[in-house]
Amino acid sequence: MPTRRTVLAALTTVGTATFSGCGSFDNTANDDSTNSTSEKATETSALSETASTDGVNTAQVYRAQDPARNVDSPVNIFVRAAGSTLRYVTVVITQRNQHGKTDNITPRNTTGESTTARKEILSESVTVASTGRTHQRQIPISIARAGVYTVHVSTADRQQKNGVVRVDAVHNDLTITAGPSIRIRQPVRCTPDCGKIGVRGNTMPLDDTQWPQTGALTGYTLKIANTTSMSRKITVIIDVDDRRVLEYAYRPPAGTVLQFPSIPPLRKIRITVKSGNDRWESMFDGTRPTIIPAIVSADGIGIDGWSDATADLRMRNERAPREVTVRAQQNGRDVATASTRLDQGAIKRISNFLRGPGAYQLFITAGPTSSDSARLLKQQRTVLLTETSTLLIRARDGVDGFLIN
């Protein structure tokens, strides 16, 4: 499909174009900000053109003419696909029109609220695929003018979702993901404080690593998304090797993702997330780098996965004949079990062994008989299922299990 793009109604001239009638925002703006006492009625916004990093296209930057109203690092916007389906996605970004003009009328949002009081500054349609170079695409316009903007996303299969993009000294680039549903997420980096989003808390040193000020190159990466419709107080507790290294409270706005530096691997880590009366806790002790995406939603706290996430089981034996057994639990309850005798080099496959996103505790054994404990190999792992994957159980000199995409 062809790409459709409109930015402030015109992008035909090279250099800087000036437009009037846009609202004013500063670094302290919020969703309800309408104060314009420091703005002259004649103030304009500019769309400047700069070279892009790939040397092919030019990147447009939407900014205020007054430098004090711009952030140092403009917010970029990315669109990506989840799942196996090609997605055609349209993104419309508007800002509050404080002068009462309604030149550009954007679609009515999914809650029935009219958006005619906002001025459209960007409309872009892109096609994203499940794999390859077009899996993720950057919209070639970034926003430097500080403020809170409305983003409306729609897809060719008639999905729609509204969210916000915050341009301030705290939030990073916005990512829109089109899959079984639409996600609009904008991260902030917490080390452990993250500007006005951090409330209070305590940290302890982690050996000679300056965590959480800096993170390891690989290890456990924790992300917590607030997908409720309002700001929520979230308390994050992290224990490493039975020693508390972080206990901190945050108040992220809707759509904001708290992102923490990676914790070095080869550790036993317990993560606890609390919000209101909801609590989620899980233990991790694997040696593989692990991204831990948690979610705070209207339904509680859990793993941030797609609703259609499943995992096929593939058990592979690389040594002498033996019996391999895997048992999966959630919240202390068995949800799936498989056991089979495998010759050397044999593989056993089971479709949809794990069903639904979440954390699964795996109990894996491999040996000539289940009663011969002296020769029985054992392993316990926690895996996080977030999208369609394969659970690989591999028996060689030891036995292990992990998810692969």
From TrEMBL:
Residues 33-53 have a biased composition (Low complexity). Residues 22-32 have a biased composition (Polar residues). Residues 22-53 are annotated as: Disordered. This is Uncharacterized protein.
